[in-house]
């Protein structure tokens, strides 16, 4: 593909005598230098830039049938990573296009990789590392110096012309029937979305127009019409589904709010009804037995009965002298009984029904021996 450096030097030496204008001094030297640059096949930075592939163009041609063919031999500006926080870019030539694991390149998915060559080194690179920016002068000088250091021939002007023609043919590519069928089969295999399928049909329609295949053109237009109708149906169905989902969500929200409200009400009611069983509520811990409860109930019943009788006869007996005397006598007997009980430790069994004595609050016996002969008897006066 490339001519050797020795061949380029010989060509330069052979062409120098054929120059028609011979001048002396600096003018002759400048003319010889200019002609040497033009005729010895040494590449310039402008020539490399003219056959450089950007990532944007690579993505645009990614699924074209001519992609692998047009990429071989082209130049790219590739990112090799960073050094000291600054990204490092190098000029490399595409040696081959191979397949590998799939990845995303912009809005597309691909499994293609480049085999990039710099001098005698080759390495596989993902297409996403190709730069969109222009080649810098320092990068060009480093690349050219590397090629010279490894004795690798630089591309000649003829090589650049061949690459330019290769690029022009790709831009003006005319699709064959076989290529169109392959593209259709590939699209069916990949099962694209309706929008992507429609875009592919538009592309195929342009290809059919280029080759003036009217039958294919009509067929593609019919497919596009059916696809547009299907897209509209799906869009209408999607809108209807969205409305239904919105209504269901609103209804579920109301139901949830109602359930939450009822749960709070039930919780409050349960707390009010069962507050004594709440383990976090402080309550009285005074011991109570059945005998005490029965005694309190009997006393309360007696008080209630007395109150009822007193309420019925209160107005009639309030000013009766006989009732006043009976009341005083009754009170005197009660006082005497209390005094006697205070001087006795015996328990009146008649006061309690059978089997209830064991339920008294203080069920114990006290036996005291006291000689009362030593003390004079205290007379008890009755009022």
Automatic annotation (TrEMBL):
Signal sequence interval, chain numbering: none
A Pfam cross-reference name: Plus-3
Organismal lineage: Eukaryota, Metamonada, Anaeramoebidae, Anaeramoeba
Positions with biased composition (Polar residues): 9-19
Coiled coil: 214-244
One MF annotation (Gene Ontology) recorded for this entry: DNA binding
SMART domains: Plus3 (SM00719)
Principal place of residence: nucleus
Organism: Anaeramoeba ignava
Compositional bias ranges of the Low complexity kind: 30-40, 305-319
Compartments, record wording: Nucleus
Keyword field contains Transcription: yes
PROSITE patterns (alphabetical): PLUS3
Keywords, in A-Z order: Coiled coil, Nucleus, Transcription, Transcription regulation
InterPro entries: Plus-3_dom (IPR004343), Plus3-like_sf (IPR036128)
Protein name: RNA polymerase-associated protein rtf1
Plus3 domain sequence ranges: 42-172
Region annotation Disordered: where it falls in the sequence: 1-40, 299-336
A GO cellular component annotation in the UniProt record: Cdc73/Paf1 complex
Biased amino acid composition, Basic and acidic residues: 322-336
């Amino acid at each position: 593909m490339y001519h050797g450096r020795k061949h380029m030097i010989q060509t330069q030496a052979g062409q120098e005598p054929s120059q028609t204008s011979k001048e002396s001094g600096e003018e002759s030297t400048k003319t010889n230098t200019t002609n040497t640059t033009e005729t010895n096949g040494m590449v310039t930075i402008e020539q490399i830039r003219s056959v450089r592939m950007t990532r944007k163009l690579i993505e645009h041609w990614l699924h074209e049938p001519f992609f692998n063919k047009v990429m071989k031999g082209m130049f790219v500006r590739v990112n090799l990573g960073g050094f000291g926080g600054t990204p490092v870019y190098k000029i490399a030539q595409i040696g081959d296009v191979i397949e590998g694991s799939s990845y995303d390149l912009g809005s597309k998915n691909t499994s293609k990789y480049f085999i990039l060559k710099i001098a005698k080194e080759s390495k596989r690179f993902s297409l996403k590392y190709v730069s969109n920016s222009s080649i810098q002068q320092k990068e060009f000088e480093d690349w050219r110096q590397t090629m010279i250091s490894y004795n690798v021939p630089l591309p000649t002007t003829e090589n650049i012309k061949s690459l330019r023609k290769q690029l022009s043919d790709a831009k003006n590519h005319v699709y064959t029937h076989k290529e169109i069928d392959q593209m259709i089969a590939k699209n069916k295999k990949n099962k694209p979305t309706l929008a992507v399928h429609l875009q592919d049909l538009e592309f195929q329609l342009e290809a059919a127009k280029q080759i003036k295949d009217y039958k294919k053109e009509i067929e593609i237009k019919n497919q596009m019409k059916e696809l547009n109708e299907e897209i509209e149906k799906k869009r209408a169905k999607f809108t209807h589904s969205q409305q239904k989902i919105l209504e269901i969500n609103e209804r579920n929200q109301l139901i949830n709010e109602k359930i939450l409200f009822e749960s709070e009400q039930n919780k409050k009611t349960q707390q009010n009804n069962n507050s004594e069983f709440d383990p976090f509520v402080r309550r009285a811990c005074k011991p109570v037995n059945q005998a005490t409860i029965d005694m309190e109930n009997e006393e309360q019943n007696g008080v209630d009965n007395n109150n009822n009788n007193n309420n019925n006869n209160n107005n009639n007996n309030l000013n009766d002298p006989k009732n006043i005397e009976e009341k005083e006598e009754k009170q005197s007997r009660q006082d005497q009984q209390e005094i006697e009980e205070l001087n006795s430790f015996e328990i009146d069994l008649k006061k309690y029904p059978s089997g209830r004595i064991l339920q008294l609050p203080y069920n114990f016996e006290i036996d005291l021996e006291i000689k009362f002969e030593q003390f004079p008897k205290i007379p008890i006066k009755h009022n």
